[in-house]
Specification:
The two termini are about 45 Å apart. It is elongated and about 75 Å long. Helix 1 links the parallel strand 1 and strand 2. It has about 200 residues and is an alpha/beta fold.
Length: about 200
């Protein structure tokens, strides 16, 4: 197990708590790799922390435990997306709680504080309701009608030509393009075609 923290006091504190535990094998920070559990300490999951977590999990193959003071609603899914399986509030970070989280992470299990789990469930439910309200449109990815329109955009056709080819109104073609660029946060038609090519739709 390795410990990463933005300041020497936090790092030393976590290492001191866990160094006394017979089930924990402390390693130097540079030794993070496949099968290693990395405990990352920070007050909030800022962009630097999220980047480090992504690197640890995706590139180094480590399992991650995040010890954090607070997480805003908008950050919950970002943290989970980074591959963090265990989160401990800083004010609850006793030796027992940290060992529990490290062991859960080493097994590949999830370990979230109850209040955070409730917030995550609420967010996922909200995302599902939003998706369901869009008549079967997925949160990510393309539906067949969007693929048909993008295929013709890729062939260089303008809105009128696409409408004629697919027997749609021009308004429908514009709505399809607007819907997919907004949902997937694409900048323009070229970006939409590039997305469809990269994801294998075209």
């Amino acid at each position: 197990m390795v410990v990463q923290a933005p300041d020497p006091i936090s790092r030393a504190g976590v290492r001191s708590l866990l160094g006394q535990q017979p089930v924990i094998d402390l390693l130097d920070e540079v030794e993070a790799g496949p099968g290693t559990v990395a405990v990352m300490v920070n007050e909030t999951p800022d962009e630097t922390t999220l980047s480090r977590l992504r690197r640890l999990v995706r590139s180094d193959g480590a399992r991650a435990v995040l010890v954090v003071g607070a997480i805003r609603e908008a950050e919950i899914l970002d943290v989970i997306e980074c591959g963090v399986g265990a989160i401990v509030w800083r004010h609850e970070a006793s030796a027992h709680r940290l060992v529990q989280a490290v062991l859960a992470a080493s097994r590949g299990d999830g370990d979230l504080p109850a209040d955070l789990l409730g917030r995550l469930i609420t967010q996922v439910g909200s995302l599902q309701r939003t998706a369901a309200g869009q008549a079967g449109v997925p949160l990510t990815g393309l539906v067949p009608r969007e693929v048909d329109v993008l295929r013709l955009v890729a062939e260089g056709m303008d809105t009128g030509e696409i409408a004629g080819k697919l027997s749609y109104s021009e308004r429908t073609v514009k709505n399809v393009m607007h819907g997919l660029t907004t949902r997937l946060q694409l900048r323009n038609r070229a970006h939409a075609v590039a997305y469809a090519l990269r994801e294998g739709y075209l």
